[in-house]
Amino acid sequence: MSVIVVATISPLDGHLQNVVDAFAIVSPKVHAEPGNELYALHRDAGTVVMIERWASPADLAAHAAGAAMTELNALVAEHVSGPSEVRVLENVPLGDPLKGSIQ
Fold this sequence. Notes:
With 103 residues, the protein is α+β, with helices and mostly antiparallel strands. 33% of the residues lie in helices and 26% in strands. It has three helices and four strands, in the order E-H-E-E-H-H-E. The protein has helices at residues 16-31, 57-64, 67-76, and strands at 3-9, 36-43, 48-54, 85-89. Helix 1 packs antiparallel against helix 3. The chain is globular. The chain starts with a strand and ends in a 14-residue tail after the last strand. The mean pLDDT is 95. This is Antibiotic biosynthesis monooxygenase. One of its GO terms (molecular function) is monooxygenase activity.
């Protein structure tokens, strides 16, 4: 079963676009990582949320320790208010298989 990750990033006031730009740089690299099934950025006026899906916990661990994350952390270091809140979640499919689960 896939591993779902929700990472919430809090940019400093006026730095939201800097954080989005950093993700734009690293996202193609993450998409090419083994086991990556989804790496999709979302935002509102003051928060950035990354929704991820990995084929296995080992793939997620390799991603977390990999070059793309090292680069991302360096790119956003001066633009965020602190560490990201990262939650690793278990998928609980409900109802319609296409609508009740992150595919």
